[in-house]
């Protein structure tokens, strides 16, 4: 039996405003405008840049738009529609968002922001549901990989082994067809590198292009190449 692909958006710049900057003028103004507490709104570098400069590793934080595009790509893919994809968002604050494959993320960015704020404040969406579409747990990336039961962890890294997407997908699909649990990790931040604790988790590091690519480009290349493989294509189009 074929195993689904587990895709993890890691160290994502998705978090609520930290308490150490909740009193900053532009944070307060944004919260007042939105009629929310400062610590109940998403940190966004396009709005909170001045306040964020006071945060540790601020350049990796405050980019919920990266997660938005990545989730839209993954959840609307044919691979997901065929129930062959599992998606997780691991944040820079070691919060993990678990995503039901049936989840439909709002295309509108402002609605997405509202959804993520509700999720991070309450803990699940819909709230108090026995079968939520989205829910959060406090887990490190290492703990998440262990919880998934990953047998083949792969880190997408610009200094990894350079492979053509077709060669990479052939390797991944072979593992999936053998019922191995493949976890592919893609960075969800805009600048800098993965934390050293993350890099130590992966002996298998892969790059799909000689230059650095945006997270959504890497995810698109991975999913499209896997969908194009003969074995997966037969499943998707019902010709198996």
Q: CATH topology of the largest domain, which one?
A: Alpha/beta knot
Radius of gyration (CA) equals 18 Å
| Overall pLDDT confidence | 96
Shape: globular
Biggest β-sheet description: 8 strands, mixed
CATH-scheme architecture of the largest domain: 3-Layer(aba) Sandwich
How many structural units, i.e. domains? 2
**CATH top-level class of the largest domain:** Alpha Beta
Uncertain runs are none
Strands, count: 8
Instruction: Report strand order across the widest sheet.
Output: 4-5-3-2-1-7-6-8
Count of DSSP H/I helices: 10
| Distance from first to last alpha carbon | 13 Å
| Helix and strand pattern | EHHHHEEHEEHEHEHEHH
Bin the strand percentage.
15-25%
Q: For the record, what is the CATH homologous superfamily label of the largest domain?
A: SPOUT methyltransferase, trefoil knot domain
Approximate helicity band: 25-40%
Q: Characteristics of this structure?
A:
Alpha/beta knot, 10 helices, alpha/beta, 2 domains, single chain, 39% helix, 240 residues
Describe, in plain words, how this protein is organized in 3D.
With 240 residues, this protein is of the alpha/beta class. The protein is 39% helix and 20% strand. The protein is built from 10 helices and 8 strands. It has an 8-stranded mixed sheet, with helices on both faces. Helix 1 runs antiparallel to helix 2, helix 3 packs parallel to helix 9 and helix 7 crosses helix 9. The chain starts with a strand and ends with a helix.
């Amino acid at each position: 039996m074929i195993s689904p692909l587990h895709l993890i958006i890691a160290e994502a710049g998705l978090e609520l405003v930290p308490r150490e900057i909740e009193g900053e003028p532009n944070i307060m103004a944004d919260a007042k405008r939105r009629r929310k507490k400062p610590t109940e709104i998403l940190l966004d570098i396009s709005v909170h840049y001045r306040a964020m400069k006071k945060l540790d590793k601020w350049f990796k934080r405050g980019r919920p738009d990266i997660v938005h595009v990545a989730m839209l790509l993954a959840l609307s893919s044919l691979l997901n529609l065929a129930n062959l994809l599992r998606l997780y968002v691991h944040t820079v604050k070691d919060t993990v968002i678990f995503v039901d494959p049936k989840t439909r993320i709002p295309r509108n960015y402002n609605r997405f922001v509202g959804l993520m704020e509700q999720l991070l404040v309450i803990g699940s969406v819909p709230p108090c549901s026995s079968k939520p579409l989205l829910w959060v747990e406090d887990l490190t990336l290492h703990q998440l990989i262990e919880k998934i039961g990953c047998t083949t962890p792969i880190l997408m890294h610009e200094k990894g082994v350079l492979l053509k997407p077709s060669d990479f997908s052939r390797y991944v699909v072979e593992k999936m067809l053998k019922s191995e649990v493949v976890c592919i990790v893609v960075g969800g931040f805009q600048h800098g590198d993965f934390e050293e604790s993350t890099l130590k988790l992966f002996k298998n590091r892969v790059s799909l292009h000689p230059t650095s690519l945006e997270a959504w480009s890497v995810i698109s290349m991975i999913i499209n190449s896997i969908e194009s493989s003969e074995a997966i294509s037969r499943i998707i189009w019902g010709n198996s």
